[in-house]
Design brief:
- The structure holds two protein chains of two kinds.
- Chain A is α+β, with helices and mostly antiparallel strands.
- Helices cover 12% and strands 15% of the residues of chain A.
- A five-stranded mixed sheet of chain A has the order 2-1-7-3-5, with helices on one face.
- The termini of chain A are far apart.
- By secondary structure, chain B is an all-alpha fold.
- Chain B has a single domain, classed as Ribonucleotide Reductase, subunit A, CATH 1.10.620.20.
- The chains are: A alpha+beta, B mainly alpha.
- At the A-B interface, loops of A face helix 1, helix 8, helix 11 and helix 12 of B.
- Chain B: Belongs to the ribonucleoside diphosphate reductase small chain family.
- Chain B: Keywords: Deoxyribonucleotide synthesis, Iron, Metal-binding, Oxidoreductase.
- Chain B: Its cofactor is Fe cation.
Chain lengths: 173, 376
């Protein structure tokens, strides 16, 4: 039986919003004793998706706990945009100088895409003003979603605020 | 070059360098030579926060329960940060405003210093909340030899520039005799002092703060002193922006983009830059040793902190176009990034002020879903 441990996310996924936080009232669901699995399935169907059941061995999330990103940057959108002819989605291959490869398909930024494909990039602000993710662009072209503020050289990009415009060859710091 | 508060000369703004050109007159932002400074001002204003927004009552309880060696770590860091922000709250204004030549840069310097004064006020807010007698902590800042030793290296570049700059403003270039003392004022030497001063400011914001940040976040990882960590998070966000500001100033100088003489000076001073970064990293390591002299804290010890100093030093000097100084390549404290990232701490909105709430910002994001029930 698939148990909905996490509430389905609605709308756009964004960094920092993908957090699981359950107040005690929502996490606790005391089932009356003696109930079999069949009634539990019914109960599952009746529950609104926000209610989450916590197993006894699962730790209670602490107030103010630091929650690291756990969503997959490269999972497709639940509500994809309408596709128009001549306006293809930017799906491009990314080749790293050390030989590793990745593909940008669904993520919102190049940084999210690389992270979700297990390529570690230094980061801090994720908004383009700190410059921690500075990366050398060897080949290709990127589009900035917002103007980068940190100092970057002519051959460098900030993956935290750009998406590829072509296949890329990059060198991480 | 006597200073005037409103320069009557007519001149071409775009022909002015960042510093040592015409004195500024009209504070106008319609013509901008370096529009990055306007962006920085806007970003800094959108970050505005007040220390009183953060509730520290649970920190008082946490602090009382801390073992003595952890109290020492916490209080020492607070003292050091107070020193750094005291310097930064005034020095950019005193040193740079008399010689600045671009209105957008002038306003950035003022905005930058102003935000440092908020940091200083937040330290008083923290100290008032955790100890019954704040004076005991503040008075020690000028007496504690570990702190005063570092105050010396933080302030010497500022003081040496300001000293010469005062003569330059009063007497201009040349050899002067003041009170029987011969003083040589050359613009080249003044520019050299300014360049190394900017480097040391960059080091202050890029490296010196981060040892304290790491300790504050390590406390909060254990759910201790969380109000303090929330304040430090906002200070760290501001400092990252200030750092970007000094990096831009240094790179514009180094490329001779508006004053070719600075490009020559930047070449001459390459070794000075490396020395300033190395010296600061070594001092921060000594500081880490002082912090942990009576014992480490959970999740952090002297060695890890020293590696972090090396890692961050490499990162920052790399941003200025230099080769790394240390061998450390990886971040030994990867969890810090999540704290330094603007808004990654989960709190119940009713329990605390949400720092993701940008004052004066508009969410202009439109999704196709928003038009779902839209009919023509």
């Amino acid at each position: 039986m698939p148990s909905p441990r996490k509430a389905p996310r609605l709308g756009r996924r964004r960094w920092g919003k993908a957090k699981t936080f359950h107040s005690p009232a929502q996490t606790e669901l005391d089932l009356p004793e003696g109930q079999g699995s069949s009634s539990q399935i019914e109960l599952d169907l009746l529950l609104p998706p926000i209610l989450v059941k916590r197993r006894a061995d699962e730790p209670v999330p602490i107030q103010g706990e630091l929650l690291l990103p756990e969503f997959q940057g490269e999972t497709p959108e639940p509500t994809p945009q309408i596709e128009f002819e001549g306006m293809q989605k930017p799906i491009f291959d990314i080749i790293l100088e050390d030989g590793r490869q990745a593909r940008f398909q669904h993520a919102h930024t190049l940084l999210e895409s690389l992270e979700s494909q297990d390529i570690e990039v230094h980061y801090q602000c994720r908004e383009g003003y700190c410059g921690s993710c500075r990366t050398q662009l060897l080949d290709g072209d990127v589009h900035y979603l917002e103007e980068p503020m940190a100092w970057i050289d002519d051959d460098e990009i900030l993956p935290c605020c750009c998406i590829p415009k072509s296949a890329l060859r990059i060198k991480l710091q | 070059m006597a200073y005037t508060t409103f320069n009557r000369n007519e001149f071409d703004t775009f022909a002015q360098p960042m510093f040592f050109g015409e004195h500024v007159n009209v504070a106008r932002y319609d013509q901008q030579k370096h529009k990055i400074f306007e962006s920085l001002i806007e970003k800094q204003l959108s970050f505005f926060w007040r220390p009183e927004e953060v509730d520290l009552t649970s920190d008082r309880k946490d602090f009382v329960d801390l073992p003595d060696h952890e109290k020492h770590i916490f209080v020492s860091n607070l003292k050091y940060q107070t020193l750094l922000d005291s310097v930064q709250g005034r020095s950019p204004n005193v040193a740079l405003l008399p010689v600045v030549s671009l209105p957008e840069l002038e306003t950035w310097i003022e905005t930058w210093s102003f935000s440092e004064t908020i940091h200083s006020r937040s330290y008083t807010h923290i100290v008032r909340n955790i100890v019954p007698n704040p004076a005991a902590i503040f008075d020690d800042i000028t007496k504690n030899e570990y702190i005063t030793r570092r105050a010396e290296s933080v302030t010497k570049y500022y003081d040496s520039f300001i000293h010469l700059c005062n003569y330059y403003i009063q007497l201009g270039e040349g050899t002067h005799t003041v009170n029987g003392e011969t003083i040589e004022v050359s613009l080249h030497e003044l520019k050299r002092r300014m360049y190394v001063m900017m480097v040391s400011v960059n080091v202050l914001e890029a490296i010196r703060f981060y040892v304290s940040f790491a300790c504050s976040f390590a406390f909060a990882e254990r759910a201790k002193m969380e109000g303090n960590a929330k304040i430090i998070k906002m200070i760290a966000r501001d400092e990252a922006l200030h750092l970007t500001g000094t990096q831009h100033i240094l790179q514009i100088m180094a490329r001779g983009k508006d004053d070719p003489e600075f490009a020559i000076i930047a070449q001459e001073c390459r070794q000075d830059v490396i020395d300033i970064f190395t010296e600061a990293a070594e001092q921060e390591k000594e500081w880490a040793a002082y912090l942990f002299k009576d014992g480490s804290m959970i999740g952090l010890n002297k060695d890890i902190l020293c590696q972090y100093v090396e890692y961050i030093t490499n990162q920052r000097i790399g941003a200025l176009g230099f080769d790394p100084i240390f061998v450390t390549k990886n971040n030994p404290l990867p969890w810090i990034n999540a704290w330094l990232n603007s808004d990654n701490v989960q709190v119940a909105p009713q329990e605390a002020e949400i720092s993701s709430y940008l004052v004066g910002a508009i969410d202009s994001e439109v999704d196709t879903n928003d038009f779902g029930d839209f009919d023509l």
